[in-house]
Amino acid sequence: MQGTSYYQLAFSVLNKKTNKMANQKVLSVCFFIHLFGVFADKENARLTTPQILTKYGYPNEVHYVTTSDGYILALHRILPGKNTTHKPVLVLHGLFVDSSSFVSTGVDHGLGFILADEGYDVWLGNVRGTPSSRNHTTLNPNRDPKFWDFSWNEMGTIDLPAMVDHVLNVTHQASLHYVGYSQGTTIFFVMMATHPNYNAKIKVHVAMAPVAYLGHMKSVPIRTMATWKDFLNFWFKAFKINEVPPKNAVFVLRRVCSVSSRFCNLVFMAIFSYKPNQVDSNTLTSFLGHFPVPISRKQGHHYLQIVKSGYFRRYDFGRMKNEEVYGFSTPPSYNLSLVTTKCHLFYSRDDLAVSEEDAVRVCKELGGACGSSNLVNGSIKHLDWVIGIRIRELVYSKLLRIMANY
What we know:
Active site: 182, 351, 382
Number of strands: 10
Domain Partial AB-hydrolase lipase: 50-105
Radius of gyration: 22 Å
Largest sheet: 8 strands, mixed
Protein name: Lipase
Structural class: alpha/beta
Shape: globular
GO biological process, one term: lipid catabolic process
Order of helices and strands: HHHEEEHEHEHEHHEHHHEHHEHEHH
Family: Belongs to the AB hydrolase superfamily. Lipase family.
Distance between the termini: 48 Å
């Protein structure tokens, strides 16, 4: 039943001879039914990644990988069809999203579908803490603060190597293609800097909005938070907020966005570099049904640290604990010169999170491993890399040509 039909029902009742009190009750009930019905009308917004894949007729599997420190990660696989390349490709999401960001926008726009249609054996990863990877062998994410004691360092040193090994073991391949978006690129760089032997396991890395350095970030809200990062971290810890945003806040936000996408557009444009006129309403609503995905407090704090410092380095615990953990008063930097896998970078001048200057710096430090540095012509803001109307034309088509060469 569409949202307007609730109002039609209300007016049909009001046309009858009923008293004023009954009319008010009918209107109230219909309003609240509509409030939640609007959100439900956009089906992809309330479906999981496997359910979305099944809806569009793509055979799929869910694989689980247990990391060395006990986290149980979900990999969503889109099974290759007949007469396809069967080349495995691992795709990893950005911050505040999960694997759904590559399929919730539908078959014409979702990168997961586009890669599958090109004949790839597609594996959509989900890092620790995301809804489908919110599991652990001994820790309960709802009760044990220790579950949330991680940053993207652990995702790069532990999660990604475990995913890569699982995909290669299942597919009986020696290496795979890798596509990273935002945080997904950070995790890749961390893995290669700490486990350089994995260079042999990756054919190519296509990096959309590559994040290693954030010293030139243009987002004013995020730069402001970076200035107050330690103050914010202190109070989050004091109030025992380890999951950001908290589950209750996510529930309220999604309900508000289901009613007023215009309000959410303004908020997202300010905080997440989102540009509303580059996304159609159905795509936006489907995406918002899965956004934001909570992250750990430490994970966010780590990103704010590199925004403020301008360095790509490990988590800064503070002088005394740094000496205890690292043997130095400041955290060590990740050495990008250890990356030998060819990396093809895509970035945009209108991305307020990843600046052209920082992306170019990544390419420079990669040296010979930087296969190409691609400044995208067109207004692409940070969330547009997965939901922008023109992203297939501007980026995905080039991404496919690059991958075909490896």
